[in-house]
UniProtKB/TrEMBL annotation:
The keyword Transferase belongs to this UniProt entry's keyword annotation: no
Name of the protein in its database record: HTH gntR-type domain-containing protein
Domain HTH gntR-type as annotated: residue spans: 1-68
Organism: Vagococcus salmoninarum
InterPro entries registered for this protein in UniProt: Bact_HTH_transcr_reg, Chorismate_lyase_/UTRA_dom_sf, Tscrpt_reg_HTH_GntR, UTRA, WH-like_DNA-bd_sf, WH_DNA-bd_sf
Length: 232
């Protein structure tokens, strides 16, 4: 994990523990000394927490901590995944299937590749505190992501892409809608056929604009809640 991400996680835990009762972070120089890193690394850690809605800056005054009103929710404005969103919880992943297939017309259109190109077809159930939270149907372009094995799929694929493959995930298009569960999804969520589900279709790109992932994710309506931070 990148150093600034490690620092961001430490700061997050300190915030949760109430280490900053005045709701303000120490100045950058103090944080640089505490973590023995450069100013740029500290700023990247702060930027990451600001993007998550945990911190905010007031020019000329400092960095302040927002009241945490969105615990146990998914930040719809970020590309993080279950492992990062619920880092303080027990996360388990069950891989239903993982196959290397040739892209059909539909898959090729979704990933903007040629029909017949090789893609990883992955179906997973993500559990949070032993409760089925999401069902994920994902396609990864093998030309961009050359290998995904079961061990990787059982963990965080995004962490693998950034930390092991050294690729930078840039942005995603997300389409959020309500749908009804089919029999297979209802069985996993232990709900009734036709019960509602929050569905997110997303296309994820590297920072260079290259599309590498197309996914459809069904969320357990009894557990899932989304939030986003809006700006003017």
């Amino acid at each position: 994990m990148a150093k600034y991400k490690q620092i961001a996680e430490v700061l997050k835990q300190q915030i949760i523990a109430g280490s900053y009762p005045d709701m303000k972070l120490p100045i950058e120089d103090a944080l640089m000394n505490e973590f023995e890193v450069s100013r740029n690394t500290i700023r990247k850690a702060i930027d990451l927490l600001a993007e998550l809605g945990i911190l905010y800056r007031i020019q000329g005054s400092g960095v302040y901590i927002r009241e945490m009103e969105h615990d146990n929710t998914i930040n719809a404005s970020k590309i993080r995944g279950i492992s990062a969103e619920f880092a303080d919880h027990k996360i388990k992943t069950k891989v239903i299937s993982l196959d290397l297939i040739e892209a059909t017309t539909e898959i090729a259109a979704a990933l903007k590749i040629d029909v017949g190109s090789l893609v990883y077809d992955i179906k997973r159930i993500r559990y949070v505190d032993d409760q089925p939270y999401t069902i994920e149907y994902s396609y990864f372009n093998k030309e961009v992501i050359p290998y995904i094995g079961k061990e990787i799929a059982e963990s965080s694929i995004y962490n693998y892409i950034e930390d092991d493959l050294k690729l930078k995930i840039g942005f995603a298009d997300k389409y959020i809608s309500a749908t009804k569960l089919t029999s297979s999804e209802a069985l996993i969520f232990q709900q009734a056929v036709g019960d509602p589900s929050l569905m997110i279709r997303e296309k994820v790109y590297l920072s260079n604009g290259e599309l590498f992932n197309s996914s459809t994710v069904f969320h357990n309506y009894q557990l899932a809640e989304l939030f986003t931070t809006a700006t003017k």
